Amino acid sequence: MTGDKVVINTHIKGSANLDSSCKPSTVIAKVWAKLPNNSIIPHFKPLTGLNLLPSSDINTKIFEYIFRGAEPIGSYEISGRLLDQLTGDSISTDIETLIFSN
């Protein structure tokens, strides 16, 4: 509804492996929105070279938006993906759907 706020927080944790000899994993992080008309809007440039150690625990707000009422009514998808920087393989994908109505 008009005035509703969408806040996107990210929580990225490194592997549970506590071996101190483990090398960091280098990943690319991407976040985007899919609008009711199926167009895609990136939220920011991909983060490249994000190093994750086994002890990494990143929790931060990355986006905030307040609906003004002029937006298209319908289903919105907010998505995020971590990719292996070397191969481009998907490590993790999260998709959340929300419905906007007046």
Could you please describe the fold and organization of this structure?
Helix content is 0%, strand content 59%. It has 102 residues and is mainly beta. Strands 2, 3, 4, 6 and 7 form a five-stranded antiparallel β-sheet that branches. Strand 6 (74-84) and strand 7 (90-100) form a beta hairpin. It is elongated, with a radius of gyration of 16 Å. The model has no long low-confidence stretch (mean pLDDT 81).
Layout of secondary structure:
Layout: E1 5-13, E2 25-34, E3 40-42, E4 47-52, E5 57-66, E6 74-84, E7 90-100
Largest sheet: 5 strands, antiparallel
Mean pLDDT: 81
How far is it from the N-terminal to the C-terminal residue, by CA?
A: 5 Å
Whole-number tally of structural domains: 1
Overall structural class, as computed from helix and strand content, comes to mainly beta
Rg, Å, rounded:
16 Å
Spatial shape: elongated
**Beta-strand proportion:** over 45%
The sequence of SSEs as H and E is EEEEEEE
Which range best describes the helical content: under 10%, 10-25%, 25-40%, 40-55%, 55-70% or over 70%?
Answer: under 10%
What ranges have pLDDT less than 50 throughout 5 or more consecutive residues? none
Strands, total number? 7
Helix run count: 0
